[in-house]
Here is the input.
Amino acid sequence: MATEESKFDQHIQNKNISDELQECYLDYAMSVIVSRALPDVRDGLKPVQRRILWAMWETGLRANVKYRKSAAVVGEVLKSYHPHGDLSVYDAMARMAQDFSLRYPLIDGQGNWGSIDGDNQAAMRYTECKLSKIAEEFLVDIEKETVDWSPNYDGTVYEPKVLPSKLPSLLLNGASGIAVGMATNIPPHNLKEIVDATVHLIENPKATTADLLNFVKGPDFPTGGIIHDKKEIAEAYATGRGSVTCRAVSEIQERKSNQFNIIISEIPYQVNKSELILKIADLHQEKKIEGIKDLRDESGREEKVRIVIELKSDVNPQKILNQLYKHTDLQKNFNYNMTALAGGILPQLLSLKEILEFYIEHRKEVVRRRAEYDLKKAKERAHILEGLAKALDHIDQVIATIKKSKDKEEAHKNLMTKFKLTAIQTTAILEMRLQTLAALEAKKIDEELKEKKRIMEELELLLKSTAKMAKVIKDELVAIKEKYGDERRTKVVASELKEFKEEDLIVEENVVIALSQGGYIKRVGSDTFKSQKRGGKGLIGSDVNEEDFLINFTSANSHDNILFFTDKGRVFQTKVYEIPQGSRTAKGKLIQNFLEIPAEEKISAMVSYTNDSKGLLVMITKEGTIKKTTLEDFSNIRRTGIIAINLAKGDSLKGVKLSSGKDEIIITTTMGQAIRFKESQLKPLGRSAAGVRAIKLKKGDTISGFDIIALDGKEKETNAKLLVVMETGFAKQTPIKEYKVQSRGGSGIKTAKITAKTGNIVSSQIIRGEEELIAISARGQVIRTELSSIRVAGRATSGVKIMKLNEKDRIAGIAAL
Here is the structure.
């Protein structure tokens, strides 16, 4: 006799552990995919959602009845269909009740079901629910054997494998879920658009996804928003994968003169409003976004989302909004992954057309099975009615036969034999009430029989005709569209939304860049300096110390590129907005903090230009050597800089200007000489070239400045003036026509009367339409004055005092605005 141990040994099988683990893991993965995470393409529901809806339908919790405690529904689902945690069921219920999660909520909830701020729903003992009206369309006709059923987890009851679903729910409410090795993320859509696309595909089975996109404009999120780029939308629907950018709906409102508010009224789908507001506050606190004065959440019942961002005075509201789009979820991508279970078993990545095709096939099956069920029921009823009609025609004989029978069974047998009736018909006759003998009741039976025959005929024709079946599906869809259809909430914009560039986040403004001898640089708004009368002392413009002084000063736009040329002939490049911003009195930051400029080299010139600028760079050295090189030669500058000009021993780069190549050049020296010649006398040279002589200098004289006389390509006299500024604060304007055009390389002519009172010329600049002048001293004094207040005088004059300087201070630079 075999022992218990030997019996057990007979059932042991030797298996490779890796094979066993692989098999078990695959079984687990498929269970998660099919039974938990992925929706069915036919009804768009995951198993837990389907079980919740069926349980509510089965217990009579329809849209027209009173609400019932959520705990009762959760208990019913757990008891009969879903043997998992109650929280998983209740969380799924809550999402189906949230109008900010589902475009068309399937549960009509009463109580706290969560909020767009991320608040959780109240406990299930507090909330109440019932099916929404649109959810009933998922379950209509389920009792007509339209879908397959399977035993529940313990085999006590049956549950539907899929719902009949009159609507393509997978697209209407979308779906998201993470399975094992795969995931799904399908956006919600507008009912009207999906119905129109489905009807079009039924009528035109060969229609492409591109054809369907004439009806489906894109996602329609319950929270609204704006989506961009129809090209990306088309690609996502054609392949099942893609990314669509969704932006919040915002409005810039002016609250006072030059003071603005940004109003956010709609936010992207699945964005937590409270977390969004906290993120904006954090960005302001960390000074990543500057210019926000106040931040308020004014959302309420009438306006579900209203975020008010109050801005400071004189900030560009569009730039602040761009920064918010860049750094917060006010702009967010929705990544398509349209994976669903096809046939309830196999997960597939589906296009828009494929999803609708699976849905249409499902509805054809439902309509066919419903018609077969109705036909079967109609035939059964007609069969009974035919027996009743025959009995009424021979009622006296029927009654006599029954009276003569000794019991019910004998009466049943006698009626079947005598009148050639079936068992079903005979049972119906025996159960017939006496009121049926009335003439009107007999007429009703006759009319009902005719109606059943008509219905049977129609159903038989329907089952034979695919065209009729398609018409039924279309008619039902159109009826639902008219009943539940609403307008699109999410606006679709055709334009492509490009990635923000850094300058999109920077306020575009005119700025002044100041550089000291010690290499400290800063950027300040040009409106920082208030206009003053000529001859004033000016304002403190930079907190330089006694050992340092300002040497270079220029104006630019914050979005410009800027080139830094060193006295050794090297060039470095950055963006103007990358230069550290400082206050009027700030010392600035050492330029080596963001440019790898050797400590022994000093910045001698700064040139700003826009991204689309074209032209040439004209360079002049302290000893009077000049050359020009195309701007394109400086398009790719290494962080460590490149050579801009090859200098002679003892010489240094003095200045650089941008020209068109068809202009004129005017040069001034510290001792008061000037020369004007045509730019055409200079041939473009490579970066490493040394250049040619521009002016013959006297002993001890050096170049003080030079500028470009822009002729716009026309050989004609210009109305420009040459502004000359001297060390002690004297300045004058001289009409450019007083400077004759000479040949390059001459000694030039006198441009100013230089005396001990005026000091040497420190700077010169062509004035052509500029209105104001900013002058800065070596010790950091700044004055901003109107150019009209500076006298226009001849070449051999000293000019007028524009700035009263402290002892031992001198003018360092100028910039005309």
